[in-house]
Amino acid sequence: MINRLYTVSATLTAVIMATSEREAEIRFKSEFGEIKDQPIDAVADEEIRTEDDLPDDWTVDCLPYGPRDNVLTIGEFLDVLPPLVVRDTKTVDMFAAAPAAGEKA
Description:
The chain is of the alpha+beta class. The chain has one domain (5-97). Helices cover 29% and strands 14% of the residues.
């Protein structure tokens, strides 16, 4: 299995008592030590294939999270990433549309 790079979005939800939205945001940050123990929903987004796919604040010089023995920066990883395999869906459709022997078309 070949390792690949993905962005992963995480959502952490907490209920904060505050007098305004701004104060709620400030309290969330100040109470994060306790809040971070709550369940987190994580969703893998698109695969990263080029530098343009990187989220803000990430560069090709960063080390991605992953196996502890990883020494490749994101840029080095992208340089050795095998090309994307593009499947020919027309061939699949051609065989799926053909009737089986003895069937009416």
